[in-house]
Amino acid sequence: MTHGEARGGEGTAADRSEGLGERLLGTLLDGGHELPPYRLGALVARQVAALAGRDATILLQDYGQTWLVPLPGEGLAAGGPHPIDGSDAGRAFRDTQPVEVPQADGGVRVHLPLLDGGDQVGVMAVTLDAVDDDDRRLLRRLAALVADMLVTKHAYTDLFFRVRRREPMSVAAEIQWSLLPPLAMSTPRVGLAGILEPAYDVAGDSFDYALNGDELHVAMVDAMGHGLDAATMATVAIGAYRHARRSDVGLAGIYAFMDRAVAEQFGPDHFVTAQMMRLDTVTGRLQWVNAGHPAPLLIRGHRVVRRLLGPTTLPVGFGGHEPLISEVALAPGDRVMCFTDGLVEERDARGEEFGEERLIALVDGLERTPREIRSVARSLSHGLKRARGGSTSDDATLLLVEWRGPG
Known about the structure:
By secondary structure, the protein is of the alpha+beta class. Helices cover 32% and strands 29% of the residues. Residues 187-403 form the PPM-type phosphatase domain.
């Protein structure tokens, strides 16, 4: 048996020699784990060139979710940012599908979404003379691997952060962004997407989630005040939530732990409103505790069918009694929207509050096409901001959870 063969059954041998696809992806895997982040572009460009491709570009989503910004680096094509709304790269990003655009010179520009666990990292674009199904398969897998490497290396460099930052960012916002999990998650049973405004000055709003086995845990918090004080309170609240959640206590126990943590750290005059949820992704049973938050909205068939009203308890930090737990059975395709009060309490030029009724009308008016929950969250947040006259004097955060069914 030769070095390139392995026994594959009686009288047969499996070919273990390296093909083009394995060589391309293997080079990234073999060389990427110790590669400095600033060298990633050059490595990707070399693999694209091996496919007879050129003008490789890596575009990262900015924090405001408005632009796709080119990552600088050796081997990567230079250029300006692409708007997420109104560009070919933006269409690939919004629809999470490759977009192929014929070029004047006869080539084809291919835009591929960079996805990591459902989170939208950005877009990779390359130009080839022609594109066939083998090219599409290899490019799709290359983009998936590049997305994983970007997420991994993001943890120990400022490079990607600087690219994504299009405006000056407050210290409080820096704290909040470092606290957040990925803004989106997607699995066969459940999807989730959130967005924070104002992206570069958010302070007291935050959210967190974890998928543990068949159970999705979700929390949203809104700390009183603004600036560093609010960011610090939100950090303590989320830290306490994670600690209690990882100790596998129930929703009432999570509330009690968060309440003690905020009270002991900040005293009786400080509080954090919160919403804590658990979703059984097999049955669709949703349980929640509302600690002073606006009631979530249940969206079915692209329309709000009800507010998820139930008993509320005091915000964490005020020493409320053991909370009552609310429950609802979701149907496949249902979405639950949680939001902070800044989304509805903004006042227009006439001094009128935006209000929940206008929020519901805007949700109902969304395009009636099946879109990924990430795209819906982004469109809804930006649409709400426009409807409020572009003003965001307080943090305005929304979080969508979609139960897709037990299959």
